[in-house]
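Tutorial, part two.
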Amino acid sequence: MRKRQVILRREEPARSSVIRRVRYGECQRNHAARFGGHVVDGCREFMASGDEGTSAALTCAACGCHRNFHRKEIETEVVSEFSSPHNSSNIA
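Running the prediction step on this input gives:
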């Protein structure tokens, strides 16, 4: 019977964090839906009517629509820190 030897090489794990920013763009509410048409109000960006955590924070100050009518844009940024176990000063 043969014995196997497993050698694990330990490296510092990469530390990473994910930053997500949510922005609400133009209003997509169809104001003429009940008449069979398509009319949007032209609001270009969601601006909260009140402070964060209140019900007014979900209403747009510009057009009066709920935040869900505005196009949601999610910007994701991954920041990673990696420390190499090798000395980088020997690289020419």
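The beta strands are 15-27, 70-81. In part three we will examine how such features are distributed along the chain.
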